[in-house]
Amino acid sequence: MCWVNSKPLTYWIDYSFNHVNNPALLETIRKDAPDLLHVGHDLVFTAVMGPVYFMGRFDQYNLMSPEQAAERENVLRTYVRSLHDAGAKIVIPYIISVAILGNHEKREGFWRFYDNWDKYYRFGLPEKPKRDPVEWTYRRYKHQGNPEFMVYDVCIFNGDWRKYLKFTAEHAVSLGYDGIFVDVNATRCECEECRSLFYQYLLRKKYNANEMKSLFGFNSAADLRLGGREEGLLTLETNLFRAEGFTSLFREIRERIGVNRTLIPNCWPMSTISGLLRRRGNGHDPEKWASAVEWIMFEENPGPGTYCPCGQIIYDNILQYKYALAVGFKPAVLNYWVDSLRGRLANIEALAGGGGAFVQPGFIAHGNASLIRQFVDRNQTLLEGFHERADIGLVFLIDQHIRGNVDHLTQVYHLRRYLSDNHYTFSLVTHKHLVANILSRFRALILPEAKYLHASKVNALLEYVSRGGILVTTGETGKFNEKGYPAQKPAEMLSQNVELGEGRIFSMRFEKMIPLRKFETFMLEEETDRLAFLDKCRSAHENGLDIPRGTDTLRRILEETGVKPIAKNAPITLRINMFDKGDLRAIHLVNYALGNGGFIEAENILLRMNMDRIVQEVKALTLKETFKLDFTCSDKVLEIIVPEVADYLLVSVKFS
Fold first, then answer.
1. Helix boundaries (H) for 179-309
2. pLDDT tens track for 377-413
3. pTM of the predicted structure, to 2 decimals
C-alpha cells in the first residue's frame, strides 16, 4: 500500500570474516540486540566462488571438499542459531547478483569450483553448466590488491548463473538464515542474449519499425544496441529492461527461499544527484523492484544531522524514507559515517519516516538498538498501519532524469529541502499516483519541470485542478509525450498560469520559485572521503554558501490558497511528519541539530493544524517517557505547545 507506515526495525551490518565461533560477537549482540543482523559470506556456497572458506581476504581461500562442506554446514547451523539465541530476530547473509571472482586461465576461484562441480551434487547443486562460466561474463577487471585475481561481471539474464544464485540462496536458508541480501544489482551487459531480449522487450512496448529508426536509430534488429548513460529515451528503455531482469531474478529467489522470508536488494544511493546520474541505465529502479521484494537498501555515506554551527547544512534521509513510503516498500538506509549520536538520529529517522530501518555499520553495542526496540515495543499501535497525512504532494518521476531531464531531479531535491525546512506536511508522488482520485487527497501539488508526460497523466493532472486542486509547475512541464514527441493539447496548460474549473495552475521559472542555497550536500559529487566532505561543508559555511537567497513565490502561493506550515517558532533543523489512523494522529518531530557531543534542543514549538474533529487527549512520547501536552481547539484549529524537543518527540492526538 502507498503512504502507509510500518513498524521500524533496528539493523546491523558487518562483513568481517571472524564472526563464526566468536564469543565476543555474541556478547555484543546480547548487550544491544538488533532486530536484523546482516553478516557477510558466512556460507557454504558463496555466490562469488562456490564452496570456499575465506582466510581474511577473497584471494586467500580454500575450496572445501564435500566432506568439509558438510562439516561447515553443521558449524554454520550452530552459528546462526547462536545469533538468534543472542537476541537477533532476523539473520541474513550476503550474495551478489552480478559478479564472480577468480582467474579463468589459471582455473582459480570460481573456476576451481566449476572444475569440481560434480562432487557437490549431494547438496542439491543444479546440473553442471555446459558453458564455461567465463562465457557467462561480459567484463573483467583486476581485484583490488591482487592483479592476478579478477572480478568478472556476469550477465544477469544468463540461465546457468540464475540457477546457481537461486541455489545459493536456498542453501543459505537451509542453514537457518531468515533470508538473503543481494548486492550491487547493476549491469551494463550488451551480450548477444541481452540484445535479443531487449529487442523483444521493445516490441512488447509496441515500438514499430519507424519508431525504432526515428527514436533510436535502429534500421533493423541487427543494429540494435542498449543505451549508455546519456541517450535519452534509449537510456530509459534500457534501464527499464534491465530493471525487469533484476525484478524477475528477485522474484525467482523469493519463490525458492519462501516468499515470507526476507530478501533485501541493494539499490542506488540517493544522497547526491550525481550518484543517481552515474547509475542511469544500469537497471536500478525501486518502483519495478518493489513488485518483487518488501525491502530495498540505499547505501549512503553521510550520517544525518547538522554539519555547521548555524545549522544550515543538514544531511538527512527524508527523501529515501518518503520515496519508499510512496512506492510501498521498506527502506534499509545504510549510513557509513555515523557515531553513536548520528546513529541514534538515523534510527529515529526510521521511526518518523514511516518504517524500514537505519542500517548500522559494524557490530557495536551503542545502546541505540535496545533503546529503539523498547520504544517500538511499547508504542507499536502508533507506528504501523497509519496513512501519511500531507497538505502537499511533491511529484518525483524517476524516468525524467534517467532519460536526461536532470532539471526535474535537481528541483525535486531543492523543493524537498525547502518543504522540510519550512515545516510543510508533504508526500512524494510517483507515476502510479497521477490519477485524479488519488491526487485529490492533496490541497496543493508541485510538479517541477516534468517535460515528458503521457497523455493520461496530463489529463489526470488537469482533472485534479478542475476539481479544486492547486497545481504549481515549473519550466517546460508537459512539453513532450512519453516517447518524446511534442505533446498535444491540452498539455500546454501545464506550463501556463490559468484558472481551470474550481482550481488553478501556477507556472514559473524555478529560479523564481523558492530561495536557493549555492551549497547543498546533495549537489556534491559522490564523496568517499569523510574528511574531504567535512572540509567542503566547512568551506561552504565560511563563505556564506549555505544561506538561502532569492524570491519565495511558492510561500505566497501556498498562503493565498490556505496551505500553511504545521509548526511555528520551529528551527529548520526540526523535521515533522504526520500520520493518521482511525481515531489517532501521530506527529513525529525529529531534531537534526547536533553540537558539542549532543543534541541542541528545540524549544516552545507551536503545532497548528485545521481540525474538524473533537480532540480528547494529546500526549508526548520521548524515547524514554510519556507525558500529557496542553492543547486548545477553537474555530476548527488545533494548537499544541511543545515545550522542547531534544532528539525526538512523538505527539499522539486522540480523537473522540
1. 192-204, 209-216, 233-257, 273-278, 286-289
2. 999 999 999 999 999 999 999 999 999 999 999 999 9
3. 0.98
